[in-house]
Amino acid sequence: MDHNTQARPSAAVGRHTGGDREARRGRAALTRTLTRRLPLAAGLLLAAAYTAAALSRGISLGIGYEVIVANASLTALVATGATFIFTCGSFDLSLGANMLVSALIGGLLGRQAGSIWAVLLGCLGTAVCLSVLNSLLASFFNLPVFIMTIVMMNVYSALATLIITSFGTNSAVVLPSSLTENLNRTWFFLLLMGLFELFCCVLFYLRPLGRKQRFLGGGVTSAYLSGIRPKRLTVGSFALAGIGIGLAAFVMTIQTPTLSASSGSSVGMDMLIALVFGGMNMAGGPRSRMYAALLGALSMSFLDALMNVFVTGSWYLQIVKGILFVTVVFLFSLSSRGKLLER
Amino acid sequence: MTAARTRRPFPIRRCVGVVIIPLLCWAVMALACRLAGIRLFSGLSTWQLWLRGLTYVLLLSFGVSINMHTGRFDFSAGAVMLFGGVVGAMLAYGRGWGPWAMLVISLVVGAAAGCVTGVLYVLLRLPPMIIGLGMTLLLEGVVAILTDGCKPVGFGTNADYYRFSVNMPAMLVIGGLALLVMTVLFHYTRFGYDYRALQTGQRIAVNAGVDERTNAVICYTVAGAMLGAAGALSICGTNGVTPTINFSTIASMFACFLPLFFSGFIGKYVNKQAAILLGCVGYEFIQIGFGQLSFSIASFTADVYKVIEAVILVAFLIYLNNEGFIQDIVTFRRFRKRTT
Fold first, then answer.
1. Closest CA to A106 of A245, A238, A240, A200
2. Would the pLDDT of B303 be above 90?
3. The pLDDT of residue A91
4. Strand duo B153-154 + A173-174: pairing
């Protein structure tokens, strides 16, 4: 009897703790579900808002959507490739500068050969090589990723300026428009985006590569002990990102055959914001999503277009993006917060 | 064995370790200039430029090092520098207050921007990378609004601001004060002890009662003050600035990487802040040498020496991060171990 009376409070405490834990788990699951659906809901909301605004202001929806697809295609291609890098828990800010150098080399090759295939090969080859160089510096020579990315961003920007001053005219490398005009079509950008997204989704969700990358992003040591080779996988991820950058460089060359030092200057920034808007976990790991890049790029293009309807000046847009960027990451981090400050 | 490893190096070795990098930089650049038929320091004006560059890079390096050495990489450093410098220039030039007032305003504005970054970091508990990128977007946008869409900010025909940047006593005072503040703050105060405790063992320090949040906010504020002052010197030295957006300010941090990694080597023999100063001295020899070479060799443009600087930086980083492995190869230690 005594034993029972003594045991009862502890059982009650146990039940209470269990209930608390259940409630906490429930709340975390709800937050996760909401945050998983939030990017798609936000994208649809932005698309609806833009359509309504364009209709009310008498803006041609056909032209508006064409501009949105053209803008989104550059960001989506770079960001989709970059998803492989971020999933592994790595990071690269030099993708925009890499894209410019690739476009310039592709453009020069294309101009020399008089063929669009030379442009494509030049863009792809250069982007993959530069991307692999970044990964080699980070993985094999153990350079800190944050430092490497800023150093390479500077190097590629300087390299682009050197190429333009050495081979260009009037501070630009110009491609004959006859070479690119047939491909400067919305259907082509949609097709390219769709095919690349499909290719990446197959690799990411249906092949062991994606599973390994998510495992690596979750924890290097456990991944290594499970037989994954982190360095080799990181180099492979950067090479895949290089394909996305190369395709984006190709699209940029088609859209603007006059390439200057400022071409695609916002792509590096847009890529990061698109990933966040699409619901990508910036720390990588098992919660990474391949479709986040495409969803985020489209959402951001709709936001750009919506803002342009009401406000003139990209700097206001940049402030809005900055606030949204931090807010979205904050919302995603609500279900996993530690006692110590993050580093 | 452990005692032998941790003992301090011999005085001669320490002295050599302290001066080797600045000396090497000076010797290599002097030789390169001699081969090109010019002199590294051709007169007082070269020394003035050298000291201006040294003070600017010193402030920038101090600003970036505070957060970087605790594992927080702050991408907004360039944006804080631009914001502080632009606000200082607009207020001081617009009201005719002069360059010293500009420096003080930039410092205060930089500190305020840094404080906001720190408070956001502590309140939102997000990774510093996210906060840094968010603040970069925000500050670049604010600067663009202040300058009416990234229009150039300058001092017109007023040469006082440029003359201030090449005023050797003024630069010595600013550099000396910055060194003094950093040394006292990080080596002789409770804040400094807490900072180093958090640097080496975050969890243990927090469990032992160190207030990590206050420490982080102070770090961001002091870094912001240094960066704001660096921004003011940069704008004075170039007689104006054209603001840019789209994360372009991140690249301005590049200038402090080489001195900071030089200081990583020198810091084995001397106090960290003095090591940063010596790293900056070496770096400025390289900068002055490149500048002199660009006068005599037309193809040696700023972009070429940016690439060369990056190659030197990458080579040095590879050495620093693989020091043990490289020493094993150079001394044939691995080969000897295998044969025995």
1. A245
2. no
3. 84
4. unpaired
